[in-house]
Amino acid sequence: MRAVVVALGKVGLPLAARIALAGHEVVGADVDPRVIETVNNGQAPFPNEAGLPEALAETVADGRLRAVADTAAAVAEGPDLVVAVPPLVVDASARPDWKILDAVVADIGRGLKPGTTVSIETTVPVGTTRSRVKPALEAASGLREGEDFHLVFSPERIFSGRAIADLDNYPKLVGGLTAAGEARGIELYASFLNAEVRGLGSAEAAELSKLAETTYRDINIAFANELARYSDELGIDVLNVIDAANSQPYSHVHRPGIAVGGHCIPVYPRFLLAGDADARLPLAAREINERMPSYAADLLGDVAGKRVLILGVAYRGGVKETAFSGAFALRDTLVGRAADVVAHDPMFSDDELRGLGFKPWTSGEPVDAAVVQADHHAYESLSAAELPGVRVVVDGRGVLDAARFPGVPVRRIGRPDGGTPDPGAEIAPRS
């Protein structure tokens, strides 16, 4: 098989490498010259993706994988499969900005030849493949879908950091616009994946399946956050409650936390809501989860005039990404309560923090309070000695060892072992 993968980001590049590892010829297309140069040197353009450096070193060296800038020219070579995974950029309300996806589809269309199957892996609102991508490809190519080429939707289902392994761990879902197109898509994906390749019967079913799995997680986390808030009122440990509930095989309650961030879970429920105006649960879940940074700030007590340190601006530990990170809402809430807010993140330089709108904290500077917003590994060994003057800590991710903070309340969401806060209490001044 010959394949073209368009957009060599954290989804596209591991996919291209996996296809090449299976012995196929792959061309990766990207608009970033640095990415192209780095990939063609057999190196990964981003860190912390298990197995990717080794896969690139092997497949680039033997000619199975190469990167180019011209998508249309790569597609014009007539590959069997073209996979498009450009980001669907969204605004602060998760409304799609179609410019990038439309531009990629137009480039593919200009080079499209008869006999090629095009697969869209970018998560999109239901109906996008049929109503937006298909007419754009036909207009740009002069070809007819179902007669000259096939178009399918196959959602990516990977987790950053373990993408190559995940490609073989989870069933690959494929939905076509025609039965023949879906069958061809299944055949092509099965040629390089060890996982089950499952047909969904239509592109719309495949689009909805991705929105369903991510929205389920958002709703589940919202329920866990509701349980945590109620547990705080009752003075019981929500993790004990959840673990007890999950000991029965039909219960799979997630864990509560300070925020739900990233490119997926905060965004895709909005895509579902955009198509289903009668949906109620996704909207309620979004509202609950978006309130959690403010609830975490409540656990600090009165912060007016106090210096509060946000530990972690990334949306989760171990990644240098801030998409829909709870750090922004937490910062704004604390500033609105007249706190002096500083921030630290081992993944970001001081200049990068300033560029994100945070005032960097210098290690050793006194603080009145701290909030763990991202579960970076470096914070697991944090102690009171490293936070001079700290009077209260909110562990929004449950990663701290409270024994390292003698005499300092370590408050966790839904876990009163660190002390139940009085919302009107004032943080004791530093000596």
Kindly describe this structure:
This protein has 431 residues and is α/β, with parallel strands linked by helices. The chain has two domains: 2-201, NAD(P)-binding Rossmann-like Domain (Rossmann fold); 223-431, NAD(P)-binding Rossmann-like Domain (Rossmann fold), CATH 3.40.50. It has helices at residues 12-21, 33-40, 52-61, 71-76, 99-111, 128-141, 163-169, 179-190, 203-234, 238-246, 268-275, 281-290, 292-298, 326-336, 350-355, and strands spanning 2-6, 25-29, 65-68, 81-84, 89-90, 96-97, 117-120, 150-153, 172-176, 197-199, 307-311, 340-344, 369-372, 392-395, 410-412. The strands form three sheets. Strands 3-2-1-4-7-8-9-10 form an eight-stranded mixed β-sheet, with helices on both faces. The protein is globular and about 70 Å long. The N and C termini lie far apart (70 Å).
What is the CATH architecture annotation of the largest domain?
Answer: 3-Layer(aba) Sandwich
Domain tally: 2
Q: In percent terms, what proportion of residues is strand?
A: 5-15%
Number of strand segments: 15
User: So how many helices?
Assistant: 15
